[in-house]
Amino acid sequence: MNRCMYSSILSYSHCLACKQKYQQVNEEFLKSDHPAIMRTRPRNTGSSPSRSTARDSVSSSSVLYTAVEQNGVDNDYIIPLPDLKPEGDTNNPPEASSSRTRLEYF
Questions:
Q1: In total, how many domains does the chain have?
Q2: Residues 75, 78, 81, CA angle at the centre, nearest 5°?
Q3: How far apart are the C-alpha atoms of 97 and 106, rounded to whole Å?
Q4: Residue 24 belongs to some domain of the structure
Q5: Which portions of the sequence form the region Disordered (predicted)?
């Protein structure tokens, strides 16, 4: 019988069944291909180009990430850093974009 249905939110963390379910869900999530997990996995620089997978496409995205350290301890929290210059737009500054100018006239 699941006791959590009848217990208060404060005692939820003390339920053994809940702890086991949380652990199971957490382990399944960490084994998944979720983008949050893919960012935290170390990149394999020696992988062969013939083995292109979804993981390779995620790790080669233009968004950079930085790990957060607090008091000299790495806590696995990652903050995305935006790409300052969009790919393919190396000649024109963003405010002088021809597509943006056309949109203003319509």
A1: 1
A2: 150
A3: 15
A4: yes
A5: 32-63, 76-106
Q: Is residue 72, in this structure, part of any structural domain at all? A: no
**Model pTM above 0.85:** no
**Nearest Cα residue to 76 out of 44, 37, 45:** 37
Q: Which parts of the chain fold into alpha helices (H)?
A: 16-30, 35-40, 54-59, 98-105
Q: What is the pLDDT of residues 29-67, one digit of tens each?
A: 888 888 877 777 666 655 544 444 444 444 445 555 555
Cα atoms found within 13 Å of the Cα of residue 82, Cβ hemisphere only: 3
Range of the domain at 29: 1-40
* Cα separation, 71 vs 5, whole angstroms: 39
- In this structure, is residue 87 part of a structural domain? no
64-70 and 73-81 strand pairing:
antiparallel
